[in-house]
Structure formats: structure tokens, C-alpha cells
């Protein structure tokens, strides 16, 4: 049996953000489409013990992470009683490339919104 390409070992380490494609929809109609390629030293550090660090500029956010097959879950403690759990789909994970997608839908005043973020990282 071969090595799981979506393992803790494969993900562990520092990943530098290179590109983000953000699309926003209202009632399935695209209302915003933005590609960003300039970041202020943005990276994610995945430690082997399941902890991590997200850095952008001078801002650091610690998190816990878990990967199971193509599902990457990042959990951030926002306050003593508030936790944010973000599920990502891992599209690509190789020795030097990581591509993840976050797809979030919500409803406000009977309007359905959807936000899709595709993030590209390298070592």
C-alpha cells in the first residue's frame, strides 16, 4: 500500500501563500470575482503535533488542524467561548504545492449567499 498523499506528514511544514481566488455569489449569481497575488508575508505553518500558525504581515493566528483524505479542518479559538471551524477541500498536496478550497454558504433575509475561496501555496 502506498503512502497517503493527504497525510499529516505531507502537510507539515511552512506553506507560503502565492495566490487567492475569491468568488462571491448572491442567489447563484456571481457578484464578486477577485484574484490576489500580492501578500504581506502570508504563510501557514502546520506543525506535526496538529497545531499551526497563520501569519499575514504582523498578525499571527494560532490554530489546530486535522487532515483526513482530502478534508482539511482548521480550528481557531476566537475567544474563551467562541471557536471558528473552517473545512477546506484539499485539491493538490505535493512536496512543494498546496491548493485548498473553502466553500461557505449562508442566508440573510431570505437571500442565499455563497463564498468560494481557492488558495495556492508553495514551500
Question: How would you describe this structure to a colleague?
Answer:
The model has no long low-confidence stretch (mean pLDDT 92). An 8-stranded antiparallel barrel has the order 1-3-4-5-6-7-8-9. The chain contains 1 helix and 9 strands. It has one domain: Lipocalin (Beta Barrel), CATH 2.40.128. The longest helix has 4 residues, at 8-11. The protein is mainly beta and 123 residues long. The two termini are 27 Å apart. Strand 1 and strand 2 (29-36) form a beta hairpin.
Sequence-ordered SSE layout with sheet pairings:
Blueprint: H1 8-11, E1 13-26, E2 29-36, E3 43-46, E4 51-56, E5 59-68, E6 71-79, E7 82-93, E8 97-108, E9 111-122
Antiparallel strand pairs: 1-2, 1-3, 1-9, 3-4, 4-5, 5-6, 6-7, 7-8, 8-9
Please summarize what this structure is.
Helices cover about 5% and strands about 70% of the residues. With about 120 residues, it is mainly beta. The protein has a single domain (about 10-120), classed as Lipocalin (Beta Barrel), CATH 2.40.128.
Strand content bin = over 45%
What is the name of the CATH topology? Lipocalin
Contiguous uncertain segments of 5+ residues: none
Largest sheet: 8 strands, antiparallel, barrel
Per CATH, the class reads Mainly Beta
The residue-averaged pLDDT reads 92
Envelope shape? globular
User: Could you give the distance between the termini?
Assistant: 27 Å
Q: Helical segment tally?
A: 1
Q: Any idea what the radius of gyration is?
A: 15 Å
Q: How many separate domains make up the residues?
A: 1
**Percentage of residues assigned to helices:** under 10%
Question: What is the SS-derived class?
Answer: mainly beta
The CATH architecture comes to Beta Barrel
**Strands, total number:** 9
Instruction: Kindly report the spatial arrangement of strands forming the biggest sheet.
Output: 1-3-4-5-6-7-8-9
What order do the helices and strands follow? HEEEEEEEEE
Amino acid at each position: 500500500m502506498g503512502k497517503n498523499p493527504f497525510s499529516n506528514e505531507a502537510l507539515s511544514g511552512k506553506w507560503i501563500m502565492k495566490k487567492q481566488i475569491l468568488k462571491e455569489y448572491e442567489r447563484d449569481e456571481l457578484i464578486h470575482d477577485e484574484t490576489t497575488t500580492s501578500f504581506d508575508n502570508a504563510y501557514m505553518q502546520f506543525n506535526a503535533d496538529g497545531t499551526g500558525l497563520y501569519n499575514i504581515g504582523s498578525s499571527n493566528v494560532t490554530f489546530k488542524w486535522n487532515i483526513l483524505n482530502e478534508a482539511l479542518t482548521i480550528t481557531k479559538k476566537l475567544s474563551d467561548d467562541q471557536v471558528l471551524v473552517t473545512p477546506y477541500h484539499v485539491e493538490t498536496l505535493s512536496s512543494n504545492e498546496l491548493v485548498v478550497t473553502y466553500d461557505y454558504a449562508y442566508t440573510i433575509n431570505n437571500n442565499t449567499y455563497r463564498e468560494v475561496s481557492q488558495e495556492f501555496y508553495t514551500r
